[in-house]
Amino acid sequence: MGHLSNVLAGAAALAAVLVPEAAAQSCSGVTGRFQPRMGSGYRSSVLATGLRNPRHIVVDSAGNLLVAEGGSQGIRRLVLQDNGNIVCVSSNTQIASGSTNHGIALSGDGKTLFASNNAAVTAYSYDAATGQVGTGKQIVTGMAFQGTHPTRAIAVSKWSPDTILVARGSSSNIDTSTTTQTSARSMIKAFSISKGMQTAHSYNTGGEVLAWGLRNIVGMTEDPLFGGVWSVENQMDDLRLNGRDIHTDNPAERMSYHGVLNATENRYKGLNFGYPSCVPAWDPQNVGISGLLVGGLFKPDGVPSVAADECANNRMTGRLHFHAHTAPLDVKFNKNSTAAYIAFHGSWNRNPADGYRVTRVDFKDGQPVHAVTSKTAQVPVMENSNVGACPNSCFRPVGLDFDQKGRLFVSSDTSGEIYVIYGA
Predict the structure, then answer these.
(1) Which residues form a coiled coil (predicted)?
(2) What is the pLDDT of residues 6-35, one digit of tens each?
(3) Most exposed of 114, 232, 274, 312 (fewest Cβ within 10 Å)?
C-alpha cells in the first residue's frame, strides 16, 4: 500500500475558539482541580474526583458509568442522576478488584463485562440494573508485561458481536522483533468471545491479525453507523534521521482505519502499518526528504533495514495524523457518526508540552472530511488553561464514552477525575 500522497488537501478546519469556561454548576461535594477551556458550543462539569488512576471507561445499558482504575485497582460503578443541567454521581462502588489496568468494554447486549490488564482479558457476567458482577473468566491470555507498554486496549464489535479486539504494544521504543507477526506485539488481534469462554485464547498463537506494524495502540472503537474499526496510536520517541535530532515535531501520532469486521471482503485486514522500520511524518520540512507529505512514511535512524522504497510503497499509513508526542489514548464516535472525539494524554518527549486535550475530527459517510495530509483536522473541545503546567499540574485525558443523551464522559488519570462534556 502506498502512503496516499496523491490525496488532495482537505477542506479548511472549522473555526473553534477556546474560551475559559464560565462558572459552572457543580455536583455537591465535588470540586475539580482545574478549570478547562472549552471549544465553542461546549461546556463541562466535574462528575467525580478522588478516583485511583482512572483509565478507560464505558457507559452501561442502564446509563451507569464503569471505570477501569489503573494499577490493577479494579472496576468502579458510578450510578448517575441528573441534577439541573448537569449530571452527578448518586453512588460510587467497586464492583471488581484487581482485574484491570486499562481496558474495559461491554458486550452488545450489555450482559458481559470485559476488562484487560497487562497479562489477560477477563470476562464477567454483568447486571446493569444491580451492578452485580459474576466470577471472572480469562478469555485471552499470554500478554504478560514485557517492557515499555503494559496497556491492552480492547473493543467489542457490535457489527460482529462475537468478536473482541485486543491491542498489544511494543516492548520498547524500537522493538526490532516486531518486524514479524510471530512477535505478537505492536498489533491488533481479533478473537472469538464464545470460543474464549470455552478455552482461553493465547495472544501469541491464537486469534486473527487485524493490523500490525502499529507501535502502541491505546484506543480503538467501531463507527456506530458504518461499522468501520478505528485506532489511535502513540508513535516513536527520540527520533533521529542521519544523526540529526528531529523528535520535537516528528513522527506524527495517527488515527488508522481497519475496515468493517463483518464485511464479506475487508481489504484492510492484516495490513502492515510500518513500525518499527517506517514512521509517519508530521513536519515533513523538518524531516528533509524531498516529496514527503504529512503522514508519509520514512525510515529513521536505529530501526531495522528495509528496501529503499518499502516505506513509501509497501506499508499502510494512517487516515489522519496529529502533532508529535500528543499521545492519543482513546477515540469515540457520537451517535450519528458525524464526528470522532479523541483524548490526547500528552507526552514527556516534547518541550514545550503538547497534548493534554480533547478534540473533534469531523466525519462524513464513514470517513474523515479532511485529507490524509491535513494538519487542520482537529477542532478544539476541551483543553487545559495552562498547558505549560503539564504534565504535573493539569488534567490528562485518557478514556472517553458517550451516554444515550449524548454526554461525553472523560477520565483524567493523574488527577483522579471524571469530566462530562455537554454539546458533543
Answers:
(1) none
(2) 333 333 333 344 555 544 578 988 999 999
(3) 312
Q: Is residue 153 part of a domain?
A: no
Residue 186: φ, ψ to 5°: 55, 50
- Residue at 292 is within a domain: yes
> What is the per-residue pLDDT for 19?
52
183, 172 contact by CB (below 8 A): no
**DSSP letter (8 states) at residue 126:** B
What is the pLDDT, as a whole number, of residue 1? Answer: 44
Mind giving me the DSSP string for 286-343?
Answer: HHT-TT--TT-EE--TTS----TTHHHHSS---SEEE-TT--EEEEEE-TTSSEEEEE
Identity of the amino acid at 226: F
335 in a domain, yes or no? yes
Cis? peptide before 352, omega within 30° of 0 = yes
DSSP secondary structure letters along 142-209: -----SS-----EEE-SSSTTEEEEEE--SSSS-GGGGSGGG--SEEEEEEHHHHHHSPEETTTSSEE
**DSSP code of 211?**
E
The b-or-e profile of 252-284 (16+ CB within 10 A means b, else e) is bbbbbbbbbbeeeebebbebbbbbbbbbbbbbb
Q: Quote the Cα angle for 194-204-413, to 5°.
A: 80
CA-CA distance, 46 to 30, in Å (whole number)? Answer: 7
Q: Say if 108 falls within a structural domain.
A: no
* pLDDT score for 8: 31
CA distance 29 to 53: 20
All cell numbers assigned to 206: 491464537
Calpha distance 53→206 (Å, rounded): 31
Q: What single string gives the DSSP state of each residue in 4-50?
A: -TTPPP-PPPPP---EEPP-----TT---S---EE-TT-EEEEEE--
Closest CA to 393 of 384, 401, 380, 406: 384
Please tell me the predicted confidence (pLDDT) of residue 88: 97
Length of the chain: 424
Q: How many domains does the chain have?
A: 1
DSSP-derived letter for residue 119 is S
In the sheet that holds 408-412, the strands lie side by side as 43-48, 417-422, 408-412, 397-402
CA-based Rg of the chain, rounded to a whole angstrom? 20
Residues of the chain with pLDDT under 50: 1-17, 22-23
Furthest CA-CA distance within the chain? 62
Range of the domain at 306: 19-103+224-422
